[in-house]
Structures are given as structure tokens and as C-alpha cells.
Amino acid sequence: MLLIVLLTAISFGMTENVHDIRNYGALGDGIQLETEAIQAAVDKCAEIGGKVLIPKGKYHVQRQGYNRWTGRELSH
Fold first, then answer.
1. For the chain, what is the domain count?
2. 49-64 pLDDT, tens digit each
3. pLDDT tens column, 3-41
4. How far does Cα 11 stand from its chain's mean position?
5. Is 49 inside any structural domain?
6. Does residue 22 lie in a domain region?
7. Within-domain flag for 5
8. Sheet holding 18-20, edge to edge
9. What is the domain range of residue 61?
10. CB burial class (10 A; 0-12, 13-18, 19+) of residue 67?
């Protein structure tokens, strides 16, 4: 029964968009610069909705000229 409900939810687009920064190139190793990957996930989230998933890890980022993340919900 649960499987049928889950498949129905997926087929009708009822699941939430989760933008995992690893799918955009982030590694979380503390070495690679992750700014672009995180920004890409945030931008996609702003475009189509959902949440940004930042898994446990060390993320090396550089400050950008302005904060495009304001007002976005980031989940971990």
C-alpha cells in the first residue's frame, strides 16, 4: 500500500525538489572550491523551488560580490 502511495505521489509531482549540492559538483572535502556548485544548487532552487541539501562535510567557499542566497532556506 505504501509503495502505491509513494509511486502516485512521484507520478503526480507531489514530491519536493531537493537540490543536493553534490549533484552540482560539490565534494565536501575541504579542498575543492565549492562556491560554484553551491550557487548552482541555490539558483536551481530559486528557479523551480524546493530545498538545497548540504550534506555533512567541509565546504571551501569564497565570498561573492553580493549575497544571492538571501531569503533561501538551506537544509542539511
1. 1
2. 999 999 999 998 887 6
3. 343 333 344 454 589 999 999 999 999 999 999 999 999
4. 21
5. yes
6. yes
7. no
8. 18-20, 51-53, 74-75
9. 16-75
10. exposed
